């Protein structure tokens, strides 16, 4: 994967979202995020309102494009870059949000976790818990996962992430990107928890969003669920993509 490959995917999806935006009464990027999340059971696997046939067709096409991008660009922050690109097209102010480039995230991840990735730090632990209190679109976590998968993939199954952000768009992007990469690339984490709220406030005020846990721990009281066996929409999109590519 090269930077140009990722940018090509980002530009293509952004252009498609830009075009569809004018055909819907909703924020189409938000509708796109919700469509991907329904596949993980968020909101009971349903949209907030019935979709028009044209919207379903458009979202299916976008899902296929996103699946292809994740295949080509493992553990890249694609949605954060798309979000900023759309803001630049005038659909929404960036609200002061600027997401760290993928290359910087990977370098920072390796520098800050060097002993764990290249040595035997935490080797005696069955589970390594990592907290990201201002996760944004998940770029730093994706950078860490990219680095570990490349340098020491056996560590992935020990990692248990807790992600928090006050912005609803951010937590949706972070959850989608991590879960989709895990599914498409066949990886497994010990756990993942995503919350909406202020990490500097009381933990009781955090709003549970989505997560799963693949180990037993009686001290963890949150309601979590395993990663679904089938990510229906993306798998259908992937099947279509492979048929077109064959």
Total DSSP helices: 9
Name the strands of the widest sheet in spatial order. Answer: 1-2-3-4
Q: Helix proportion of residues, in percent?
A: 40-55%
Counted beta strands: 4
Indicate the radius of gyration in whole angstroms.
Answer: 18 Å
CATH architecture of the largest domain: 3-Layer(aba) Sandwich
CATH top level of the largest domain is Alpha Beta
Euclidean distance between termini CA atoms: 20 Å
Oligomer: single chain
Low-pLDDT residue spans: 226-232
Class by alpha and beta content: alpha/beta
Keywords:
single chain; 246 residues; Rossmann fold; four-stranded mixed sheet; 4 strands
How would you describe the overall organization of this protein?
The protein is of the alpha/beta class and about 250 residues long. The protein folds into two domains: about 5-95 and about 235-245, no CATH class; about 100-230, Rossmann fold, CATH 3.40.50. The chain contains nine helices and four strands; from the N terminus they run H-H-H-H-H-H-E-H-E-H-E-E-H. Strand 2 (about 160-165), helix 8 (about 170-185) and strand 3 form a beta-alpha-beta unit. Residues about 225-230 have low confidence and may be disordered.
List the helices and strands and how they pair.
Blueprint: H1 3-21, H2 28-38, H3 53-72, H4 78-88, H5 102-112, H6 114-118, E1 128-132, H7 139-151, E2 159-165, H8 168-184, E3 191-196, E4 207-213, H9 232-245
Parallel strand pairs: 1-2, 2-3
Antiparallel strand pairs: 3-4
Give a quick summary of the entry.
With 246 residues, this protein is of the alpha/beta class. It has helices spanning 3-21, 28-38, 53-72, 78-88, 102-112, 114-118, 139-151, 168-184, 232-245, and strands spanning 128-132, 159-165, 191-196, 207-213.
């Amino acid at each position: 994967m090269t930077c140009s490959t990722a940018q090509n995917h980002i530009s293509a999806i952004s252009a498609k979202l830009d075009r569809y935006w004018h055909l819907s009464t909703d924020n189409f990027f938000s509708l796109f995020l919700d469509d991907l999340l329904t596949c993980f059971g968020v909101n009971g696997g349903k949209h907030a309102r019935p979709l028009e046939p044209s919207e379903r067709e458009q979202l299916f096409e976008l899902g296929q494009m996103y699946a292809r991008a994740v295949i080509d660009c493992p553990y890249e922050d694609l949605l954060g870059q798309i979000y900023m690109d759309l803001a630049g097209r005038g659909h929404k102010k960036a609200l002061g949000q600027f997401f760290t480039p993928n290359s910087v995230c990977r370098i920072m991840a390796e520098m800050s976790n060097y002993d764990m990735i290249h040595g035997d730090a935490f080797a005696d632990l069955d589970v390594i818990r990592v907290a990201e209190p201002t996760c944004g679109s998940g770029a730093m976590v994706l950078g860490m996962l990219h680095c570990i998968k490349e340098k020491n993939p056996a560590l992935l199954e020990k990692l248990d992430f807790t992600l928090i952000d006050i912005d609803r768009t951010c937590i949706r992007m972070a959850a989608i990107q991590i879960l989709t990469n895990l599914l498409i690339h066949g990886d497994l984490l010990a756990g993942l928890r995503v919350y909406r709220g202020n990490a500097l406030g009381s933990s009781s005020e955090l709003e549970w969003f989505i997560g799963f846990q693949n180990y037993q721990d009686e001290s963890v009281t949150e309601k979590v669920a395993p990663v679904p066996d089938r990510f229906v929409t993306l798998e259908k999109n992937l099947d279509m993509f492979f048929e077109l590519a064959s």
